[in-house]
Structures are given as structure tokens and as C-alpha cells.
Amino acid sequence: MTTLQPIIGVAANERRDAGDDMGHMAISYNPSGYIKAVQLVGGLPIMIPIGDPMHAKRYISMIDKLVLAGGQNVAPEFYGEVETIQSSDYNRERDAFEIALINEAIKQNKPIVGVCRGMQLVNVVLGGSLNQKIQNHWQDKAMTQTSHDVLISKHSPLDLIYGRKAHVNSFHRQSIKQLAPQLEVIAKSLDDHIIEALQSTDPNLRFLGVQWHPDFMYNVRDEDLAFFRYAVFNL
């Protein structure tokens, strides 16, 4: 008997100018690391393009699990603040659509995996907030290199994957400020105690989020591929 592959919906991003040779077309896309990693561990990834939030219910009904990728900053109005920094790195249409996806995934009891921005957005949806700008967490090294240590909570899922201390990459300018009531911290950076990973404390909400990018490292380090294996089959 053939076992069906879990269908993993990866929420997409957009670029207004793909820099191509055909009129610089706008594109919807998923960074290939998410797609390749899910495929390598045995999942079936599909892209969920940014769209009307009213379609979130239908999209979530089609998948087994939802992955929220990295990308733009989360606009501060979604966590009840005014913009205190000057930045063009927002996509409010994406924010609104992914918020609808998260709420619908919770309603349908579908597991959620959040990477970088994705983790931050789940915290926002559940009632938390973000630091709008932090320093020293956008590394100068290549994406496949690591830049700082994180301390991981004992017996957490990440402890089983990475151990108690992991050396990870870092590409974010926002961070968790107020933690949402249904979440708990399972990793912090060793040097400045920035929150680096979260999981749900609610048995009816299956969620795991990391601030670093295993999608950049899945093909160079076993632990990061193991993260996706856990997300696809065990979360």
C-alpha cells in the first residue's frame, strides 16, 4: 500500500520586478530551500500565492501543514503600534493574507511552521508584538554560514534536532517583543537573549517557529534537514 505524502503548503512571497528579460515581470515565488527541503524529506510542497483572505479557508483545506517563510517586516499596525522606523520593507497584502491563513489553520487544526518572519507573524496573530528594529542580527556572512549561538530548551523538539546549543545563521531586523499567551520560548541567542524559537503551549495548536533559516542550510547541515523532517512528519 502506498503511503500518501503529506501536502505542505508554503505561503508565497512576491517581487514586483523579477529582473528578467521579458519586461521585468512581477512574480509570485517560494524560496527554493523550502521546496527542496520538503521534497528531500518526503513531503509534497505546494505554493500558496498571496491573494484574497477570503480564500484562506479553501487553501488550508487542501493541505496537511502550513509553512510560513521569511521575507518582509511585519507591518506594525497588525500588532497595534504605529510605525517608528522609516522602512519600505513591508508587504501589507502579504501580512493580511498570511494572517488569514494562520487563523484558518488554527480553526482546521493544521500544524504551522514559522521561519523568521513566519514565526514573528504567528506571535502577532496570537496577541504578541515585535521590536520594530534591532541591531546585529543581519549577518555579513553567506547564507550557508552560521554567525551566532542559541541556547535551546531541554527536551524541546529543537533539543532533539540540534542539541542544547546550536550555531545558526541570522537574517532579521525585527524580533519578538511581547510573547503571545499561547506560546513559550524554546531558544534564545546566547549573546543578547533575543528570542530565537517558539512553540505552542496549547494542545489544540501545533506550532513550531525558528528565527534562523534552516532553508538556507538544509543541504549543508544534517540538523537543518532534520528540522524539515520533523516539521513534515512529526509536528
UniProtKB/TrEMBL annotation:
Per its UniProt record, what Pfam families does this chain match? Peptidase_C26
Q: Write out the entry's keywords from A to Z.
A: Hydrolase
Q: GO CC: one term?
A: cytosol
Set out the biological process GO terms recorded for this chain's protein: polyamine catabolic process
Q: In which domain of life is the source organism classified? A: Bacteria
MF GO annotations: gamma-glutamyl-gamma-aminobutyrate hydrolase activity
Protein's UniProt keywords contain Transmembrane: no
Q: Which PROSITE patterns match?
A: GATASE_TYPE_1
InterPro entries, per database record: Class_I_gatase-like (IPR029062), Peptidase_C26 (IPR011697), PuuD-like (IPR044668)
What is the protein name given in its UniProt record? Answer: Gamma-glutamyl-gamma-aminobutyrate hydrolase family protein
Taxonomy, top ranks, is: Bacteria, Bacillati, Bacillota, Bacilli, Lactobacillales
